[in-house]
Amino acid sequence: MINSSPFERIKAYLKNYSEVLIFYSDQRDDFLAWLSLALFYSLKDFGKNAIILNQSFEKNVLFLEKNIPQINSSSRHPASFIISINENSGFEISSLSYQKQGQNLNLFLTGQGNLTKDNILLKSNKTEALLICLGAKDLNEIEGLPEKTFLVINLDNQNNNERFGQVNLVQPDYLLAEIVFTLITNLKNELKGKIVLALIFGFLKELFFNQNKITRNQLEKINFLQKQLNFAEKNLLNQWLSVLKDKNEKIYYLALLKTSFQPKDTLWLCLSQADFQQVNVDFMAIPFVLQKLTSVFTATEKAALLWEQNSSPLRVRGIFYLKEKKAQETLVRNFSSQIKNNWILLKTDFKNIKNAKEKISEIFSGLNS
Asked: Are residues 261 and 304 in the same domain?
């Protein structure tokens, strides 16, 4: 379980800071950009002025360019000074422009009413801000900081992290996506919209590049997040899959998105012909998927990978991992199969994945009765 003690401290700090800067390490894979984006939206919802510092941020979210507000250069590097104009003086500003002439900067204000110098205030913006660092092992990685002092919240899962923050949520046994997920769920009563999409993208990307074993807990979090999406957001998720160039990534992400634990004692992964077409691969990708998911299959009492194999004619095939000898014997008795250790290769006469799953679920239910 992720250490929960820092979360109350983080919530207390957030109450005292209106401005929160987010930095993610660009020395690791781009899943960190998605996790920083999830934090960005959740902090906005929390009523904070959240700013992502990284210059390279936009390139990671081009497919959502019309849906995600751009973070311009002025907001990445907050001003050292602020000119504040009180519109209660009777002057209402409709537009502002500026012109640099030699050593002078002229501001041009357009509006209605009268404005005097008494209604203009110049103040320093060099106050303390809250800085959240994602995936950085030390402060030397952080660039582009404005002239402020900072209280630092350090989120990471690297063993060599130098614990440089006032709050260090460093958990080497977990994905960074899990750490950010837990932080956000501690801040918010519900997850929705862009926060959920960014978390899903972060989970999928990190799992693909992560060398550790996939866990049931990680898959359940992805499954939970998908259930929070509405129809339009699910379309955005499918759009993201469609623009990926690497076919291995596509089929792997699709497999993670299609896994479920229903009923709870069985891991199901069912891939239809429509699923294969969505990512432009065929059933020849099954060995790659199985290789990636072997660790979570073998950590489960019953696990089933079913797919529609269009090899004239289309039939549903399956690979099962079963520890129960009784379950193994029942499947072998009902279907044409090959068995080795706890693995079963299954051939069925079903023409679609839904009917095959229903029949196999019925067999499993009979075993438990």
From this structure: yes
Exposed, middle or buried by CB within 10 Å (0-12, 13-18, 19+), for 210?
middle
Name the burial class of residue 113, with classes exposed (0-12), middle (13-18) and buried (19+) by CB atoms within 10 angstroms of its CB. exposed
Q: Is the pLDDT of residue 83 over 90?
A: no
What's the predicted TM-score (pTM) here? 0.80
Confidence of residue 131 (pLDDT cuts 50, 70, 90): very high
Through-space distance between the first and last CA atoms of the chain, rounded to whole angstroms:
33
In a domain, 93, yes or no: yes
Tell me: do 25 and 101 sit in the same domain: no
Single-letter residue type at 176: L
Element (H, E) at 100: strand 92-101
Evaluate whether residue 236 is within a structural domain: no
Residue-number span of the structural domain to which 185 is assigned: 5-78+127-209
**Residue at 267 is within a domain:** yes
Task: State the CB neighbour count (10 A cutoff) for residue 192.
Answer: 14
Q: How far is residue 309's CA from residue 316's CA, in Å, rounded to a whole number?
A: 6
Asked whether residue 223 is assigned to any structural domain, the reply reads: no
CB 179 within 8 A of CB 171: yes
> In this predicted model, what pLDDT tens digit does every residue of 213-265 receive, in sequence order?
788 999 999 999 999 999 999 998 988 888 888 888 899 999 999 999 876 78
Residue 58 has pLDDT above 60, yes or no: no
